[in-house]
Amino acid sequence: xxxxxxxxxxxxxxxxxxxxxxxxxxxxxxxxxxxxxxxxxxxxxxxxxxxxxxxxxxxxxxxxxxxxxxxxxxxxxxxxxxxxxxxxxxxxxxxxxxxxxxxxxxxxxxxxxxxxxxxxxxxxxxxxxxxxxxxxxxxxxxxxxxxxxxxxxxxxxxxxxxxxxxxxxxxxxxxxxxxxxxxxxxxxxxxxxxxxxxxxxxxxxxxxxxxxxxxxxxxxxxxxxxxxxxxxxxxxxxxxxxxxxxxxxxxxxxxxxxxxxxxxxxxxxxxxxxxxxxxxxxxxxxxxxxxxx
Length: 293
Fold this sequence. Notes:
Distance between the termini: 72 Å
Shape: elongated
Order of helices and strands: HHHHHHHEEHEHEEEHE
Strand order of the largest sheet: 1-3-2-5-6
Number of domains: 2
Number of helices: 10
Oligomer: single chain
Low-confidence stretches: 1-9, 283-293
Number of strands: 7
Largest sheet: 5 strands, mixed
Structural class: alpha+beta
Radius of gyration: 27 Å
């Protein structure tokens, strides 16, 4: 205390400290239970979304739970020292809280912005993190610690791993009739197989087709590990399917997903790859190159 002003970095008893402490303890108990259950092949989260979200991660849920357990235990210990007047400042706690909020912004941002699903277990952990860290930040009044978290959240929003930017990159749209699906065709102007697909699409009476040049879809193709075109992204009521090569694409467009894929189409056919000669057109489909779409 100096000059009549309160030093908000000093530890002292207060309801916010107790809220942060009990939230940390509860988080440690929750994550510790998950770690213990994992040794016998059990889990606290039985929702299918938990398993799907886990597939997107490099680490399993028990590993993440162990790291979260260590974080909550460390934070609870520092808060206890504050409550017992054994620590003179909250700067270390503030640094940990800021890092935790940043991590949660990434984890939850990926789930809601990219995966379009959430993991109940992750949301529970996030609740304990937010409750404890926000209490610490309000107590210290150092709200600048929110700045990195806000930056991370904005970065996630403007760089989603979804096909929405792919739709925005389309240069032309063909829409007529009452289509039940939306298609995005990734093409190259000098690809005869792309024109073969487009020629068939132009004969359809019910169609909603977006044409996207390959040069504007490089990030999407790289993410999928796809080098050639044509590529058709099928969006049917939110369920998406990616078809590579005119063989797959034309079979789907002609027969529909109710039919089995013939043995000859188990590998993509009718593909043009960068730096390699395009596969020949199917017999009877020697189409002249159309003008670039």
